[in-house]
Every structure is written in C-alpha cells, then in structure tokens.
Amino acid sequence: MGVVFLFTACNKEQDGIYNPSRKIQKIHTVLNAPLNAEELQDLVVVWNWDGDVLSSIDFYENEVLTSTNQFTYEGNRLTTVRNASSYANFSYDEEKIDEIKVYMTGYDEPILEYSFEHRGGKVSEIEVEYHYIAGLDKKALVDPLTYILPQSCEPAAKMIALRAKEVKGYEKSTMKLTWIGGNVTSVKTVSESDMSNSSNSYVTRCTFDNKENPMKSCIALFAFGNTNSFMGFCNKNNILTTVTSTGSLSKITTTYVYEYNGDYPTKVTSIDRIDDVEKEVATTYYEYK
Q: What is the pLDDT of residues 75-101, one digit of tens each?
C-alpha cells in the first residue's frame, strides 16, 4: 500500500514526495479465515494514480465504496488530504515534514495537531495534540498518521487514538523514535490528559526482513486507519514483528509472514496476540500496476 509522502529516511529526498517503482493498485483482505482461503478476499482499498502521482484512495466495505480520500499537491509534494467530513494540511521545513493540522469541515480551529523533530536527517520525535469537541465523532477524521508515521508507531498510535476518543478535554502524546540503519526499531509513547491528570506510556519494539518496502516515502500511509497500514512509509524494509508493552496492562504482539514477487511483498499474513493469546489473523493481498 505505498502511497505518497513523508519519511524518506536515509537520504536527502524531500518528505511528502512518493513515487515508488512498483505502485500498489488494489488491496484485498481476509480476516480469521482458513489457510489458502484466497476466494474469501474482500476488496478494501483501491489506489488511483494520475501518472506517477497518487490522486485518491477509495475505501470499501463488503465490496461497496464507503469513502474516498483526495490528495492535493504543490508540484509533486503532498499538501492536503481531504474526505467528505475532514481534511489534513501538511507543512514542511525545507526537505522535512514540520507540522500537520487536521480540521473537521465547518470548524475553524484544528482538532488534531502534529509536530515533528528531526535528528540526523530522520524523524526523532512526534508530538500529537488532541482537542475535544462535544459531540464530535473522531471516526470521521482523516488520520494523517496513516500517511506519515513508520508502521512501528502504529500499535502505540492506535492506543493513543482510542484514549483520544474518550477524553473530554485536551490530551498530548509524544512519540520518541529509535532507528537502526534505515528502520525504526522502537517507539516510546507517553500520553497525558488535562482532565484525568494521568500519564500513560507504551513502548513498541520491531524487527524487519531484508526485502524492499513498497510503502517507503509514503507520507500519506497512516491515513488508512485500521486498513493494514503496517508497512510504514519511513522504513527501508518490511516489518516482521511488533511487541508493544503497556506497563501494567497487556503485552500486544503482532507477527507478519510474507510472500514476495521478487523483492516486493504480494501477500502478508498478520497474527495478533494479547498476552500470548491469539486474537486475530488477517491476510492482505497486494496488486501492483
């Protein structure tokens, strides 16, 4: 599911530009099905390309189109992601992503704000601020993290997002990224709320294969929410395992098994476990242009 944009980790390429040599066109999934159950695939995502630029992404449920994310660029650099109810604006400091602000249609002030720090040419820290609005359904928001974070952040990001749906006020979360080579190998997340005067922390650790990640440089990747955005935009390789420790809470482990066409994945099976008890098995199939 490669798409547009954010972290080109090890070189001087600009964040926000995504032009992979192999472009994903369709994504299908199978949940908790028997092995070799390819006939049970559900179409979940279609990527629409205008030449070398991703123009939109269509999302499906039960083979029915439910929503579309539209992308706007300056030149070939991502500036806005928009759907029917919200939009996200991306801003840059020269080559690097600097800030993202998410708005609900009809509201003048951002509901979510993301700011980025860099070290050695790589993202080192991401700060997320949530502003609660009474009656707001955050499920309707564009999630820009789907478009920019490494997949290593996803378990922690999901936990933060779940808490943000419950908090009635203001909450700030900070993610600190650790790199080895071209991959993010750990993410520590701390979340604080002004309503509960409490702090929660999560640590996710990751391992990787040695194959090409088709999502690399795809800043828009995290806007997929729960639609298998695990490959991440900033990692050079594909993730094999994530282990998220939540202090006194449960340990969440996800294992990924790949099938490849050359150096690129075409089938990925993910197995989720909570405290070593298997909870979900999902298989994702990728079609390329």
A: 888 899 898 888 889 999 988 889 988
175 and 139 in contact (C-beta within 8 Å)? no
Measured at the CA of 281, the angle between CA 186 and CA 285, to 5 degrees, comes to 90
In a domain, residue 242? The reply is yes
17 located within any domain: no
Beta carbons within 8 Å of 111's beta carbon, 6+ residues apart: 86, 102, 103, 104, 130, 131, 133, 136, 138, 141
Q: Specify the DSSP element, H or E, that contains 159.
A: helix 154-166
Residue 268, token pair as written in the block: 């990925």
Beta-carbon count within 10 A of 67 CB = 14
H and E: helices and strands count for the chain? 2, 16
Residue 204 falls inside a structural domain: yes
Burial 242-261 (b: 16+ CB within 10 A, else e): bbbbbeeeeebbbbbebeee
For the chain, the domain total comes to 1
The reply to whether 28 falls in a domain is: yes
Residue 7, pLDDT > 90, answer no
Matching residue, tokens 């150096």: 263
Q: Which range of residues forms the domain containing residue 61?
A: 24-288
Cβ–Cβ < 8 Å for 4, 147? yes
Pairing of strands 24-31, 170-180: unpaired
Q: What sign does the CA torsion over 245, 246, 251, 255 have?
A: negative
CATH code at position 188? 2.40.160.150
Place of tokens 């994945």: 265
Are 6 and 16 contacting, i.e. CB atoms less than 8 angstroms apart?
yes
pTM reported for the whole predicted model: 0.79
